[in-house]
Design a protein that fits this description.
The chain is of the alpha+beta class. The chain has one domain. It has 10 helices and 15 strands. Strands 5, 6, 7, 8, 9, 10, 13, 14 and 15 form a 9-stranded mixed sheet that branches. Strands 2-3-1-4 form a 4-stranded antiparallel sheet, with helices on one face. Strand 2 and strand 3 form a beta hairpin. The longest helix is centred in the N-terminal third of the chain and has 20 residues. It starts with a strand and ends in a 9-residue tail after the last helix. The structure holds fructose -6-phosphate and magnesium ion (MG) (2 copies). The site of fructose -6-phosphate has 9 residues, from loops.
Length: 365
């Protein structure tokens, strides 16, 4: 049996109204185009959306960074852009930063998370998709899932993962990467990934080399050189049998953490776990939200999905997120609701600064 690859590729190619949600016609078109490739390039596929992001979930046997698979995703986004333009949807084609496909979709605008693995006897996979935040949003959850025994008792009591995990971290500004081993380098890992705007966990492996998690790390503004919205990220996590259980994987989402993104990609706000039916951004263009679809992978087939946050067990965190949203919203345009100046450089603020920049005078004393 060849290895199975899961490719989750996403882009915002237009939404309604404003940046709220993806139009059903885009979802239909994308699913149709992927279905046509099942039994050819792909084994299986599933299309969904989180807020204004169109999410393509694909399985195949061609490994990560496969040109044909990336080209397929690119073509799907291009076709959906055509529909978005015909409906005058908002931000039609917004994440398609290049004029043409050039071998790998990374760096062209869309976000990509992929992993290739040998299927176990039974292989549960959870796919997380977020809107109105950036890739660093996963850092907290990946730490909790794979390195915090208060979240994941399996780290303490399952011999299969007692040795811990390896975290690969990308420095998205300097374009370099590093690996940290847990539990022995936990404090060093945290010293790095606590700075979510710059350091982003890309992969997690068990120490015997089994791939456990993979995320998208694309930063649109760094690619485009200007503000083009946030880089709403995706993440793939494998579960069970010597990896954290499905329940341990979703447990940290019961904590309402504050992430960067939300309105104009310029505000801190709570990341709310929601069912797919609630994956529509409204209040203040948000609040930031995350969905999770669970599948069993069976010879590449996507058995599922289960809508993991469609559960009253997450009602309390949702309500706490709403309270936090009220709390930070009261601060209006003031930090720390508004992002710090360093992060605001990647928004539309520099355009305003230009307007009054020449009026500054030196203070003589
Ligand atoms: C956040 C986002 C929105 C827009 C906002 C203004 O990622 O996409 O909050 O930034 O709706 O959009 P424009 O400037 O296009 O009117
Ligand atoms: Mg949008
Ligand atoms: Mg989005």
């Amino acid at each position: 049996m060849p290895k199975t690859t899961i490719s989750v590729i996403k882009a915002d190619v237009g939404s309604y109204p404003g940046h709220s949600r993806t139009h059903p016609k885009l979802l239909e078109k994308a699913q149709k185009l992927l279905k046509e490739q099942e039994g050819k390039l792909l084994i299986d596929s599933f299309v969904t959306h989180c807020g204004d992001d169109l999410e393509l979930i694909m399985t195949h046997t061609h490994g990560v960074d496969n040109k044909a698979v990336h080209k397929l995703a690119w073509d799907v986004f291009m076709e959906c852009t055509k529909i978005a333009k015909s409906l005058k949807l908002y931000g039609a084609g917004q994440d398609m930063l290049a004029d043409a496909f050039s071998g790998n979709i990374k760096g062209l605008g869309p976000g990509v998370a992929e992993m290739e693995f040998e299927e176990r006897g039974s292989d549960p996979v959870l796919i997380f998709m977020a809107d109105k935040t950036g890739p660093g949003a996963w850092n907290f959850f990946l730490y909790k899932i794979f390195a915090d025994p208060f979240n994941t008792p399996g780290l303490v009591i399952d011999p299969g993962m007692h040795d811990g995990f390896i975290f690969e971290v990308y420095d998205v500004l300097e374009k370099r990467k590093i690996q940290f081993r847990t539990p022995e380098e936990t404090y060093t890992l945290l010293s790095c990934i606590g700075a979510c705007s710059r350091y982003v966990v890309k992969h997690v492996w068990r120490k015997d080399g089994v791939i456990a998690a993979s995320t998208s790390t694309e930063k649109l503004n760094l690619i485009a050189g200007r503000y083009v919205g946030k880089d709403d990220p995706v993440m793939i996590v494998r579960a069970q049998s010597g990896l954290p259980s499905a329940g341990e994987v979703v447990e940290p989402f019961c904590t309402p953490i504050i992430v960067a993104g939300w309105m104009r990609g310029s505000h801190h706000g709570p990341l709310m776990p929601v069912a797919v039916c609630d994956a529509n951004c409204t209040r203040f263009d948000g609040p930031p939200r995350v969905i999770c679809l669970g599948f069993q992978i069976s010879n590449g087939e996507l058995v599922g999905p289960a809508d993991m946050f469609d559960d009253p067990a997450f009602d309390r965190v949702r309500s706490r997120c709403n309270e936090l949203a009220d709390f930070v919203r009261d601060q209006g345009p003031f930090e720390p609701h508004r992002l710090s100046l360093g992060e605001m450089e990647y928004t539309t603020l520099p355009g305003i600064e230009k307007k009054f920049g020449k009026r500054w005078e030196n203070i003589s004393e």
